Amino acid sequence: MQPPVKMRKNAKQARAKQSVSTILEATTQLLERSEIEQISTNHIAERAGVSIGTLYQYFPNKTAIFVAIAEQDIEQRFNLVAEAIEKADGDLAEDATRQMMRAFIKSFADAKHNAALIRVLMATRSTAEARTLPVDAIAKLLAKAVRRSGATRALTETSAFVLTRAVLWTILTATIDAPHLLKRQEFEDELVRMVQAMLRPSGELEDLTQ
Amino acid sequence: MQPPVKMRKNAKQARAKQSVSTILEATTQLLERSEIEQISTNHIAERAGVSIGTLYQYFPNKTAIFVAIAEQDIEQRFNLVAEAIEKADGDLAEDATRQMMRAFIKSFADAKHNAALIRVLMATRSTAEARTLPVDAIAKLLAKAVRRSGATRALTETSAFVLTRAVLWTILTATIDAPHLLKRQEFEDELVRMVQAMLRPSGELEDLTQ
DNA sequence: TCTTAATGTGAGCAATACTCAATTTTCTAC
DNA sequence: GTAGAAAATTGAGTATTGCTCACATTAAGA
Known about the structure:
homodimer; DNA-binding; elongated; mainly alpha; 9 helices
């Protein structure tokens, strides 16, 4: 199993596009039943009703299939979050940061087969390039929510990195290790607290404990 | 490759213990050269100078070998952090939280082959039970540092989860994606800011933005 | 020294990821 | 329509893998 790259060949005819989506669909179904290690490419091809050769015409290796699913999945989640942010545009009464965290958590709490897909994300993330996690997109969403919430601190490369990773990975690991937390109000509260602390101007925070 | 479990058989004689540690040593060496997917059990056995049968006498499957290495590695890091915390016992001038974050970051910045080992951690974490990451140990260390820093907010299950995961995974992903950040003072500052915000009593934080 | 337990061996099996030469289907231009 | 090219599909086959097991060797205990 080699490091994953992009699609090997572009499907031009409708027939070919059908094959690709059938393969992805079959893989998703198998992921509901089995662990990722137990899923073989031959198995996927069989369930999709295409030959193993067709599979490798479009995916350079096994990992690429899982990466494709993970990317597709996370894109959907982010669209949900972005949509929720847009919808809450005029809603200034409630804190925009909270709005976003709520949408974010919800997108993971609602989705089926969370754990399996997150594990795919982690597993691919751990071998592939970082492309799988669109952290830039998250950072932009955060920045938008921030502007609306009235916080003024400018995010540097470093602070943006810490903020986005902290939020993202906390939700990801919660989805796997403690999914019940996603339903708790307190979980949302803690994330909001964290994000707001990272966004508040420095003067208001420093040296309160000394 | 099946889900990893514990060691298959306990090495009683010195000869056997030697075999086990030789296998782990050989695997570590291979990890410096190759990606985890390209390392085969036969390859490990060959390099360790033991037969493949001996390898499977002590490790139930391939993953178990990597888990063993990851656990061993992370235990060392935590010992370093714990040690640093202890040493700074009388040192009340500097914030205990900062002391801990610094030791934590340093343990990742100094270690050789960080990225490779973290990837092992992530990959195993993504299939195995959560045992690989001793988050409880981290939570305890944090609590210790907290008490010393004078913060008073009690940690619940939820807040402890968010705090430990946010800190741990931010450092982990930084080690892989942006190792240069580990050397920046600002990175430490941001983590300290985050932790202190999570530990400060609620009254001092709420509704500052409204 | 004899017995038993612990350790080590490696040929071999089932399963895997992936290739490629050959075939079938669709598109295009006349 | 029809011919030819391009796109898509096929699946037997290859190399390699994770792992087992019957057997050989070494050490421990009496």
